[in-house]
Amino acid sequence: MTNKSKLTYIVLFVLLPVLYLVSSFIVRYLIQGRDFSLFFSDSFGILGIYYVFVSIIFMIAANIKNVSLKDI
Length: 72
Fold this sequence. Notes:
transmembrane, 76% helix, single chain, 0% strand, mainly alpha, membrane, transmembrane helix
Protein backbone atom coordinates (compact mmCIF):
# COMPACT_ATOMS: atom_id res chain seq x y z
CA MET A 1 0.00 0.00 0.00
CA THR A 2 1.18 3.46 -0.79
CA ASN A 3 1.00 6.32 1.66
CA LYS A 4 -2.01 7.75 -0.16
CA SER A 5 -3.98 4.52 0.10
CA LYS A 6 -2.99 4.09 3.76
CA LEU A 7 -4.27 7.58 4.54
CA THR A 8 -7.46 6.90 2.61
CA TYR A 9 -7.95 3.64 4.51
CA ILE A 10 -7.45 5.33 7.89
CA VAL A 11 -9.88 8.13 7.02
CA LEU A 12 -12.58 5.85 5.61
CA PHE A 13 -12.40 3.02 8.13
CA VAL A 14 -11.36 4.77 11.36
CA LEU A 15 -11.84 8.53 11.44
CA LEU A 16 -15.20 8.91 9.68
CA PRO A 17 -16.96 6.13 11.68
CA VAL A 18 -15.63 7.53 14.97
CA LEU A 19 -16.71 11.03 13.96
CA TYR A 20 -20.15 9.69 13.05
CA LEU A 21 -20.52 7.84 16.37
CA VAL A 22 -19.51 10.86 18.44
CA SER A 23 -21.72 13.30 16.54
CA SER A 24 -24.65 10.88 16.50
CA PHE A 25 -24.29 10.30 20.26
CA ILE A 26 -24.25 14.02 20.95
CA VAL A 27 -27.27 14.79 18.77
CA ARG A 28 -29.49 11.78 19.42
CA TYR A 29 -28.76 10.94 23.04
CA LEU A 30 -27.65 14.17 24.70
CA ILE A 31 -29.58 16.83 22.79
CA GLN A 32 -32.74 14.99 21.69
CA GLY A 33 -32.84 12.76 24.78
CA ARG A 34 -33.69 9.53 22.95
CA ASP A 35 -33.21 6.11 24.50
CA PHE A 36 -29.63 4.81 24.49
CA SER A 37 -30.60 1.41 23.08
CA LEU A 38 -32.29 3.13 20.13
CA PHE A 39 -29.18 5.23 19.51
CA PHE A 40 -26.97 2.13 19.80
CA SER A 41 -28.93 -0.04 17.36
CA ASP A 42 -29.47 2.73 14.80
CA SER A 43 -25.88 3.94 14.79
CA PHE A 44 -24.24 0.54 14.53
CA GLY A 45 -26.72 -0.61 11.89
CA ILE A 46 -25.87 2.40 9.77
CA LEU A 47 -22.14 1.81 10.33
CA GLY A 48 -22.50 -1.81 9.22
CA ILE A 49 -24.06 -0.74 5.94
CA TYR A 50 -21.40 1.97 5.59
CA TYR A 51 -18.57 -0.54 6.03
CA VAL A 52 -20.00 -2.86 3.36
CA PHE A 53 -20.27 -0.09 0.77
CA VAL A 54 -16.93 1.51 1.62
CA SER A 55 -15.17 -1.87 1.48
CA ILE A 56 -16.51 -2.52 -2.00
CA ILE A 57 -15.56 0.96 -3.19
CA PHE A 58 -12.10 0.68 -1.60
CA MET A 59 -11.44 -2.67 -3.31
CA ILE A 60 -12.49 -1.28 -6.69
CA ALA A 61 -10.41 1.86 -6.22
CA ALA A 62 -7.36 -0.14 -5.15
CA ASN A 63 -7.66 -2.26 -8.32
CA ILE A 64 -7.96 -5.53 -6.46
CA LYS A 65 -9.43 -7.69 -9.17
CA ASN A 66 -7.66 -11.04 -9.15
CA VAL A 67 -7.85 -12.34 -5.62
CA SER A 68 -7.52 -16.07 -5.15
CA LEU A 69 -7.13 -18.33 -2.14
CA LYS A 70 -3.52 -19.02 -3.14
CA ASP A 71 -2.65 -15.38 -2.45
CA ILE A 72 -3.90 -15.56 1.13
